[in-house]
Amino acid sequence: MQGTKSVTKNNYILYILFIFLSGLLILVDYFSDKELSGYIPNQVNFELNLDTKELINIYNFNSIFEKRAQLISENIRLKNEVQDLRALEIENQELIQKISSYESITSISNYENIDFYSTGFIAKNLNLEFLIYGGTNQQLKPGDLVVNEKGFVIGYLKEVFYSYSILETPYSSSFNLEVIDKYNNTYLVTSNGSMLFISSISIVNYKEDIDYLFTDLSLDQSGKFPLLDTRKINFEIKNNQINATYLFDEIFTFNSNLFIPRFK
């Protein structure tokens, strides 16, 4: 303990001597018009005595470091360009698909007085109803037909909201749609969710080669679009009543191109 105290005491004495000597040097320098501080240089240059080999190694190291930094920067730039190109490729493919769909649907028949609003599936709601894009913001209304790129009717709008609508399809048990054949006979098509039921409403001139059942302006619909190919259906005629059932295949997928025909 005594040894420790003596060491600490000696340290204090050294500090006091250092401060005293520093102050003395400052006083001497001051009263000698700073002759003493004139000996202290304002700038000190350090020189490293390196041989040629060491200088080459330092240069090579700096060069490698700079090249690595350039490669990292170039790699980041190329990755960004690849991402941009992929985004453009996807957008280009979507545009090509839309153009192809428009060309397909406009080549089916003469639709000079009809515009086609392009839409698509969003999701199914909790009631298992199909939601599609477009609503009152696109002047859509309940009852508007929805067709695929081949021009076939896949349903109609059941309810219309601001930016989306509920699509009524043959997969719904509440589906019902009036159609006609090329001889102006009228039919009602309903569904139980997996099968369509076709019943005649008005028979004017029935023939077996009716081919297709269509929507029509006379039924307050937005044009003549096919719903069913009757060549795959066996009709039963009894007491001037025509009936048939049709087990439909998949009529669309979530990737299907959909259109809503509207008058110009």
Characterise the protein shown here:
It is rod-shaped, with a radius of gyration of 44 Å. The strands form three sheets. The protein has a seven-stranded antiparallel sheet, with no helix packed on it. Strands 7-8-9-13-12 form a five-stranded antiparallel sheet, with no helix packed on it. The model is unreliable at 100-104 (pLDDT under 50). It contains two helices and 14 strands; from the N terminus they run H-H-E-E-E-E-E-E-E-E-E-E-E-E-E-E. It has a domain at 114-263: Beta Barrel (Thrombin, subunit H), CATH 2.40.10.340. A hairpin with a 4-residue loop joins strand 4 (145-148) and strand 5 (153-160). With 264 residues, it is an alpha+beta fold.
List keywords for this structure.
14 strands; 27% strand; 264 residues; alpha+beta
Describe the SSE topology.
Layout: H1 2-31, H2 52-106, E1 114-119, E2 121-124, E3 130-133, E4 145-148, E5 153-160, E6 164-168, E7 176-180, E8 186-191, E9 196-202, E10 212-214, E11 226-229, E12 236-238, E13 241-246, E14 258-263
Antiparallel strand pairs: 1-14, 2-3, 3-6, 4-5, 4-14, 5-6, 7-8, 8-9, 9-13, 10-11, 12-13
